Amino acid sequence: MQCKKFLLGCFLIVLSVISSLDLQAQQDAMHTQYMFNTLMYNPAYAGSRDAFSAAAIYRHQWVNFDGAPRTGSLSFHGPLRDKYGLGLSLQYDNWGVHEWGIVQGSYTYRFYLTPTTKLSVGIQPSVLYQSSNYLEVNEGLTDNPDPTFNQSVREARFNAGFGLFLYSNRYYLGVSVPHILDNNLSALSNEARRYRHYYVAGGLVLPLNDALTLRPSVLFKIALPNAPLQADINANLHIRDVVWVGATYRTSDSFDFLFGVQVTPSVRIGYAFDLTTTEIRPEAPAGTHELMVGYDFNLRNERVITPRYF
Hints:
It is built from one helix and 17 strands. The chain is mainly β. The strands form two sheets. A 14-stranded antiparallel barrel has the order 1-2-3-4-5-6-7-10-12-13-14-15-16-17.
């Protein structure tokens, strides 16, 4: 009980400090349901569910806004023997004249700090494929087209990242840098770069009674030097471990609402709606929609906890 109070107190203190800062948007693709696809930003998560797991998320941002981002991601990971984990993540982004395809591999090694607490160390090689059709910029400009945009660019970039993931059945804390190198992203300008992002994530499981479980979590993101800190502050209420409802505040960006169902012990489905609070809201009043499907292929052994909150 004292440990639970201490963890909850630390969690609330961090939230109060972070919420007082002036926060900005990030460069990497965002997911409102990040807590169901942790592998996308932390390679040390691979194998932590003690089951072979897959998760897919599709996000349509700022519906009805021309050129708005659309993101699809698919991740798969599982344990390898007792202390190792492997994972694979695929991501596709489309916004304006740009398309990104990202392939990430993950390898982890786990240390048992106690019988119920583990620390995973993960590394993540990745390849980014970028396609930018700058010819679309000149479409319709028959009188004075800009010669700078008379080309299309297709490039591939290698990168690598690492992460740490401390977890038990009741809490987790992760730190990660998914891509260390600041890749150049355009043949037109050296200023177009994919900047290094830093992530810190944490969450708790707080049983309220036999039917209700509260699961608060937070994800901090920072990309220096162009974008300072941003935070996703979330709380999901799980009802009999079958249905969950929740809300997220994404600092200086949106209020988000989540709903999900654990259809079977292996299958979970989730939906999130983001209500934008920035100046773009009048141009995209339909908001942002996100769908998630997760599947656990099998239970590895009798030590697996069901439900698996993390």
